[in-house]
């Protein structure tokens, strides 16, 4: 989801078709800066790049004539929307339906234009459940239990290609392997993952920040150099975690969406892509720890829960 940073700019990750009509979308970090009248995108969050890093692209907000849902124009690109400028069209792909709504709304407000009627059906109410619109044709459904959570999936045929729409707030996977599978290759034994995704982690020695792919499973939190790697750079056993909380020193580090995982050996500082993602990781890790240790603890090993701080006595 897009979020507002310390400079009052709307920020977040989107996929962009940098070469028009190429059909190839690349992940970029976007900054909507109304003070500079610009929409900029970088290879990563500028906080993780050298200070001299220049944006990979920029569009003046005054050049944007229309913002609209492009799902019908690009049926193979889910949650796609388009920016129409005088020179070309920029196709962008959001992470989910609510992310699509939030970006269209933010860009609409920034450019002071009216979104076309075909997009007005997109709700922006925070109280409305965030679901992908149901297909008009009758489809089959399947219920799976993933990490103790029931997930309903629907299957729809579009242009000969099978498209899966995940419900319950889970983003569809673009990988033929279901998103909850472990790093093991297809055909080998697999383990269900509770949560996966990219975050930025501080190194233990050099104190530099690098993007890593995190996987939370029933017994451990692991991180990899990339999503394609099979062997983790490090595996943190859940039984070694003492506390998970939003980082209190983030003002000192000047980083948004920062949380820390306190273990018996060291503190891990992790930066999520948005406040929602940060809270999601804190709750997922905390929930996995509680599930692993079970209700059979004595009175002096109770879990203390204050907002987004969970302490787990050993």
Summary?
The chain is mainly beta and 314 residues long. The protein is built from 3 helices and 20 strands. A 9-stranded antiparallel sheet has the order 15-14-13-12-18-17-16-20-19, covered by helices on one side.
What does this structure look like?
This protein is mainly β. About 10% of the residues lie in helices and about 35% in strands. It contains 3 helices and 20 strands. It has helices at about 95-110, 250-255, 275-295, and strands at about 5, 10-15, 25-35, 40, 55-60, 65-70, 80-85, 90-95, 140-145, 150-160, 160-165, 195-200, 210-215, 220-225, 235, 240-245, 260-265, 265-270, 305, 310. A 9-stranded antiparallel beta sheet has the order 15-14-13-12-18-17-16-20-19, with helices on one face. Strands 1, 2, 3, 4, 5, 6, 7 and 8 form an 8-stranded antiparallel beta sheet that branches. Strand 12 and strand 13 (about 210-215) form a beta hairpin. The protein is globular.
